[in-house]
Amino acid sequence: MAVAKAKKRKQGRPFAAEGGVGREGVLAAATRLLQTLPPNQVTIIAIAREAGVDPALIRYYFGNREALLLAVVQRLAEEGDPPPSADQPIAALEENIHRVFRFTRSAKYMQRLMIEELDSASSPDVLERVREWNLDPVEFYEAIRTSDAGKELADFDPLFLHLAVIGISDFFVSGAPLIRLLAPPGTDLAELDKKYEAFVTRLLLNGLRKR
Fold it and tell me: Which residues pair with 153 in a beta bridge?
């Protein structure tokens, strides 16, 4: 009895792509992992396992890990709240501080991803897109400064303010082991996080107001 020959596969998408897992499925899997694991643990293999696909599918859709991580950054940024209007500078500044805290909670390893992974990316295109993405908040603070025109706010450097806000908000995540060590036993860390956010907001607003 003749044995049927295996059908030769045509070049193109890996087999896993034909099982119903597409680009969005891979992107969603990488996003889930980056919300729970440090970036250095989010490897191609780990993402493939989370998505239930062959690693070749990830390379097919994104080319390399750097491009995939950048796509995750962009997705998380797009899903976050849009920046407030700069027409009312004090209110806009306060809302944006809360907005950064919300984003940090939803994407708690984002700043570490920027520093440890994307900053050392080998692709000039990836680096330029990361630079452009990070310039958006700097331009937002510049719009606030311009809109206020020295009426209620003391003059400030938009870049320094951006660095201060992301650094302060990120520390409650990156510094969690130290916070747990210093907080009184039985402290509700979620409640402490809210109090910290309120404290930081008052600190920054009072520090920026004209005397």
Answer: 209
